[in-house]
TrEMBL record:
It comes from Longilinea arvoryzae. Belongs to the binding-protein-dependent transport system permease family. This is ABC-type dipeptide/oligopeptide/nickel transport system, permease component. Keywords: Cell membrane, Membrane, Transmembrane, Transmembrane helix, Transport. GO terms for biological process: transmembrane transport.
Length: 350
């Protein structure tokens, strides 16, 4: 247990350092714009034209926007940790509150996708690697090649055409219109922000089933390419492990083939599998934005879309970028801790 907390502390420090480096680069990019443009990051809502210049001058003085870069970055980070991410004129609300409002929907989509593609990727990779060059292996390799070759936005459009327009099995958005009035009334309590769980907690399993039905297409779109990558790496690891001495020794002792594959070889294949998942965390987030936009899913990608259209919206754009960095780092940390818990070799190295 002590080693686990030591690893957790080291991972926290590493991710915190990564966060500061990336945000420092983000703010360095923002510094390419004029001082008055950066001051709009802190501009309050509904400022009249008469007081606009005065307000901008006060913001520049308060946040030291005419000071050297390290000073500006320090005050920007202080404002971020205080929850002051700026006011978005396109969203007509504070950026931080807008992100908090839409983050649970994105988190639910990502979490469900991870729960789908990690078990399926590992299991299919193990089976394909153990049955190398057999029909099941050829089927997996063909499916994985197709999944990685198909761009997510093309897959999403195909799914919309087949499962929504033609078959009417699944639907876009987050829930059906028949539940709209109830979900926005005082009778419904959004305790977790996850529609599947909140439906059950409110005694409405029909809402949970409806939310799950709306998640099917974006989850498949998001998970398919990740499943293929994870499965390929697991397959390659299993093929490599099959020639190791411990496998031959286990067979000589009369250990069943099932035990060798699922109890011994799989343990060594877990670590590379989760390492690949950590590396692909950024691409997973990119897939989330594609899925949310095409399926009209109300996640944080809405903020990015709104910030790029119409009038320039620096607070929303920068807030979206910062939140994306935080989300990727959290995903990598979770997968790293799972890998550390499952692989005893990592604990021995600590």
């Amino acid at each position: 247990m002590l080693l686990f907390f030591q690893h957790l502390f080291k991972r926290f420090l590493s991710q915190l350092l990564t966060f500061f480096i990336i945000t420092a680069l983000l703010y360095a990019t923002a510094m390419l714009t004029p001082v008055k443009s950066r001051a709009t990051l802190y501009l309050p809502p509904r400022v009249s034209e008469k007081t606009y210049d005065t307000v901008i001058a006060n913001i520049i003085e308060k946040y030291h926007l005419d000071a050297p870069y390290p000073v500006q970055y320090y005050f920007w980070m202080v404002s971020l940790f205080q929850g002051n991410w700026g006011y978005s004129p396109t969203l007509n609300e504070e950026v931080f509150s807008a992100i908090l409002q839409r983050a649970p929907a994105t988190a639910e989509l990502i979490l469900l996708s991870i729960l789908v593609y990690i078990p399926l990727g590992i299991i299919s990779g193990v089976i394909a690697g153990h049955r190398k060059n057999r029909p099941s292996d050829h089927l997996f390799r063909f499916s994985a090649f197709t999944a990685t070759s198909l761009p997510p936005f093309i897959l999403a459009i195909l799914m919309m055409a087949i499962f929504y327009i033609n078959l009417h099995w699944f639907a876009p958005e987050r829930f059906s219109s028949q539940y709209y009035s109830y979900l926005h009334s005082d009778q419904f309590h959004g305790l977790t922000g996850f529609m599947i769980l909140d439906g059950l907690l409110n005694g409405r399993p029909d809402i949970s089933l409806d939310a799950l039905r709306h998640l099917v297409m974006p989850v498949i779109t998001l998970a398919l390419a990740q499943w293929a990558t994870l499965g390929r790496i697991t397959r390659a690891t299993m093929i490599e492990e099959a020639n190791q001495d411990y496998v031959m020794a286990a067979r000589a002792r009369g250990v069943t083939e099932r035990s060798i594959v699922w109890q011994h070889m799989l343990r060594n294949a877990i670590s590379p599998a989760f390492s690949s998942s950590m590396v692909s965390a950024a691409s997973l987030l990119t897939g989330v934005f594609v899925s949310e936009i095409i399926f009209n899913y109300p996640g944080i990608s809405y903020i990015a879309v709104q910030s790029m259209g119409g009038i320039p919206d620096a607070p929303a754009s920068l807030g979206f970028a910062v939140f994306s960095v935080i989300l990727v780092l959290i995903l990598m940390s979770i997968l790293d801790l799972v890998q550390y818990s499952l692989d005893p070799r990592l604990r021995e190295k600590a």
